[in-house]
Each structure stands twice: as structure tokens, then as C-alpha cells.
Specification:
The chain is mainly α. It is 92% helix and 0% strand.
Amino acid sequence: MTLLRTAARTLLASYFVSSGVGALRRPDELVVAAQPVADALVPFVKRYAPEQLAAVVPEDTRTLVRVNGALQVLGGLALASGKGRRTGALLLAGSLVPSTIARYPFWSITGAEEKAVARSGFTKNLSLLGGVLLAAVDTEGRPSLAWRAQKGGQLLARDTRRTAKRIGRTTGLATGVLTKNASDLADTVGDLAGSVSKTTGSLTDSAYAGGAALVGAAVASSRKAKKQAAAQLKAAQEAAAKQAAAAQKQAAKRSKAAKKKGAKKAKAAKRTQAKQSLLDQKDQAKQALLAGKEQAKQAVLAGKQQAKQAAVDAKAQAKAEARQSRVDEQQLHKQHLAAEKQQARRDLAAEKQLVKQNLAEEKKAAKAERHITVGEN
């Protein structure tokens, strides 16, 4: 991971080192672009910065360009080498802001291509700014100062609680020993502490421990001190009882307020649920209406399609019937023609036969006439 971080820091710092060296060697090339930023920035710094800092801020734009380049070189080397890397990253972030505004003022450019190039450079520098800011807060996996301070506070609080518990246990043991020597007073203190502990909880336990310590001191000292300790214990118990009563009242008030708040939230939830139910019913009705309209539309379209298909089928059937009728007429006509031809052939044959018969009869008649004529002769 360390090697990867070193490589990433070096790659990130290379741009700033190269840019800073260019600004140091050729500052005149950047003076024209940096002049508006310098004119706005220098008076602001001299006006609001401390006098010691305002006195050393140069007013020459060329010098400001070289100073910015030097900051970039120093910050880049610190970031790449790892020596003061977080400080170097902050220097790079600070130097990148004015250089970005000076080099890529796309908001003041009118040409479309030049404006696109400037916007691209501005976005690139914003990405670099994000990179150096990440490098500035990178702790390489080690806890930050804020986390260490918070963790130290938690450890200190834990040690304090443990010490308090040990002191409480020690005080309890000493009180037990002293109670054996002064049974009457210890019994009175125990009875009072037990009765108060039922109502006051942790506050009464603290009062009992304090009272026991006072009793031990009283037994070890004098009777007057014992009476004073008993009075102090009684006062502490009364104060604890008052605090417990106040806590109970406060708890009752909070419980009542919580119940009211819960009731309000329940009512609000019911109202919200009723509204949501009404909205759902409206949506369902709307969806049902839309579905009915869609079904009616589909039914109309289906009826039109069926009617169209029926018309097409009827037309096709009519064409088929007409075609079949023409075929039948042609067939019948052919049959008539064939019958007429057959009848014509028959009539022709009959006429031929009749002609033959007539010729034969004529021949017979001629023969007969010839015989008659020969007979007469």
C-alpha cells in the first residue's frame, strides 16, 4: 500500500512540478492571463490580511506568477518525496485556485471552440484540486488527531469510572468495619439509606456512600462530628429524595408528552393511511376505467377487423363464384358447340345419304325409262 501511495503521489505531483518550473522559467507567457486575477487579488489581500503579510505581498504580476510557480514546485516535491506531504498538498491546492481562474476563464470567452477548451481545462484543474485535497487529509491508515483525542477522552472517562467504583468498594468495606464498632448509629444510617434507595435509585446510592464515609469519620473523631455527619447525611438524603421526586415528576411529564405525541403520530398515520387508501382507490378506479376504455377500443378494432375480413372473404367468394360461373358458362358453351357440330355432322351425313338415295332412285328411273324406250322401239 505504501508503494502504491508513493507512486500515486509522484504522478499527482508531476503536473505541478512541471507547471511550476514553466512558470519560473517563462513567467512572461502567463502575465497577460494572470493580470486580471492579480488586479483583483492583491488589493483584497493588502486590505484584509495582517500588516506583516500585506507588506511582503508583491504587486508585480510577473513576480506573483513566479511565486505561484515556486509554491507549485515546492509543494510538488514535498508531495512526491513524502516529506511534509500534507503541507505540500495544501500549498498545491492554494496555488491551483488562482492559476485555474487565470488560465481558464471560460465564462468570459465568446468563441465556441475556445470556450470548450477552457471549460475542459477548468474541469481538469478541479479534478487536480480534488486529488491534492484528498492527499492533504490522507493519514496513510494511521488515526487522525481528532480520533486520537476522542479515543483518549473515552479511555480517560473509563478509567475515571473504574477508579470511582474501586473507591466506592473501599469506602463500603471501611464503613462495614466501623459499623461493627458503632452498631446503633450504623443501623440507623442503614435503615435510612435502604428506605431512600427504593425511591431514588442511583442518587440515593451516592448519598448512602457519602453518608457512610461521614459516619466513619465521625466514629473516628468525636461525638460532635458524628452528630454533624448524621445531620449532613440526613440533609443529603432529603436532597436526594427531592431530586428523585423531581425526576419522577419530570419522567411522568415526559411520559405524558410522549403518549400525546404518540397519539398525534398515530392519528397522523391513520390520516395518512386513509389518504393513501383513497388515492389507491382512485388509482384503481382510474386504472379500471382506462382498462375498460382499452378493452372497448380493442373490441371496436376487433369488430372492424372482422368486418374487413368478412368483406374481403365475401369479395373473394364473389370473385370465386364469378370465376366458376364463367368457367361453367364456357364449359356449357363448349358443350353446345360440340353438340351443334355433332348435329351438323349428322345432318350432313343424312343429307349425303338422302342425296345418294335420290341419285340411286334417279338412276333407277332413268334405267326404267331406257327400258321402256327400248321396249317401245
